[in-house]
Design a protein that fits this description.
The chain contains 11 helices and 2 strands, in the order αααααααααααββ. About 55% of the residues lie in helices and about 0% in strands. The N and C termini lie far apart (about 100 Å). α2 runs antiparallel to α3, α2 runs parallel beside α5 and α9 runs antiparallel to α11. It is an all-alpha fold. It is globular and about 65 Å long. It has a two-stranded antiparallel sheet with strand order 1-2. It is a multi-pass membrane protein. Its main location: membrane. Belongs to the MIP/aquaporin (TC 1.A.8) family. It holds the Pfam family MIP.
């Protein structure tokens, strides 16, 4: 027997309605994703990673670009231009990341900051990885920008050393003696610039002063080591040249590759220790006062806390003959306590 009920008919949505509904669904799907991405980017460690990455990238693009001008065209570049390129690159990097990560842009400075207790060790791999990635990407960017000039200069070959060598655009290839004092002097001066107890740079001028310091180090001491004061500046671009086609010679030439990595770290650490021992620790230490403790006497001596309740007016008629034992509470530890910060 056929059913007496007719099948239900649904009204189909028009095309504009379907499009609007799909757009709303897409927005609702993307909203949680956007929120999660923002939450991740706002994490302190992520912000510091990105800040170190971008500041190092900017510094290296300016620096390597100036070296490329000097190597590939003596008319357009100069040794002074190389120093200015790295110096202003450091300045721009500090402006980009100074208030987020401190804009180290240098694994030697990061290591020294951790070793001296000014940065947690858990941040060391994060900082160094971001610096290395930024430096590596800057080397790749420079190679792409100057690829035609490099090939034209070296006769369509990638040569490490010699008159037609171009690997020196990206890393240092210099004499065998170490560069310990370059890192030493760099860290010593940087700590003096930022020490507020000494004669620091004026507020807002730290980036420029540190940039000038980099220029001065290059002008006065760069000839001996090729400006090898930063492991993050030297090792990642050297890896890039190894991958890009310069070959094993980038590591085997004069066995120099490890010096710009090890010596600046040792020099920076020793320089930091010397500054702390001879300069910072020599400042008279001001006593620190614990919170919630106050000095109540004008002569600065600790005052005993008041344990008596405030006096109130007494009505003679309300005085009772009963002897009520009074229990005095122990005075709270409100005396001023001085702490000498070692």
């Amino acid at each position: 027997m056929a059913s007496q009920h007719s099948p239900k008919r649904f009204k189909s949505m028009s095309r504009p309605d379907r499009t609007s509904r799909a757009t709303q669904d897409t927005k609702m799907t993307l909203l949680p994703v956007k929120t999660r991405v923002q939450a991740v980017l706002q994490m302190a460690m992520v912000r510091e990673f990105l800040a170190e990455f971008l500041s190092t990238y900017i510094m290296m693009v300016f620096g390597l670009g100036s070296v490329a001008h000097w190597v590939l065209s003596k008319d357009l570049g100069s040794y002074l231009g190389v120093n200015l390129g790295f110096g202003f690159g450091v300045t721009m990097g500090i402006h980009i990341a100074g208030n987020i990560s401190g804009a180290h842009m240098n694994a030697a400075i990061t290591f020294t900051s951790c070793a001296l207790g000014r940065l947690p060790w858990k941040k060391f791999p994060v900082y160094v990885l971001s610096q290395f990635l930024g430096s590596f990407l800057a080397a790749a960017t420079t190679f792409l920008l100057f690829y035609g000039a490099i090939m034209s200069f070296s006769g369509e070959q990638l040569i490490v050393s010699g008159p037609l060598g171009t690997a020196g655009i990206f890393a240092t290839y210099l004499p065998d003696h170490m560069t310990l004092w370059r890192g030493f002097l760099s860290e010593l001066c940087i700590m003096a610039i930022t020490d507020k107890k000494n004669s620091p740079a004026l507020e807002g001028t730290h980036a420029v002063v540190i940039g000038i310091l980099v220029v001065i180090i290059g002008i006065s001491l760069g000839m001996n080591s090729g400006y090898a004061i930063n492991p993050s500046r030297d090792l990642p671009p050297r890896f890039f040249t190894f991958i890009a086609g310069w070959g094993n010679e980038v590591f085997s030439t004069k066995n120099w590759w490890w010096v710009p990595v090890v010596a600046p770290i040792l020099g920076a650490y020793l320089g930091g220790l010397v500054y702390l021992v001879f300069i910072e620790y020599s400042f008279p230490q001001e006593p620190q006062i614990l919170e919630n403790y106050k000095v109540s006497k004008d002569d600065g001596t600790p005052a005993l806390p008041k344990t008596q309740p405030p006096l109130t007016s007494v009505n003679p008629n309300s005085v009772s003959t009963e002897v009520t034992p009074t229990v005095k509470s122990a005075p709270p530890p409100n005396d001023t306590i001085y702490i000498e910060h070692l």
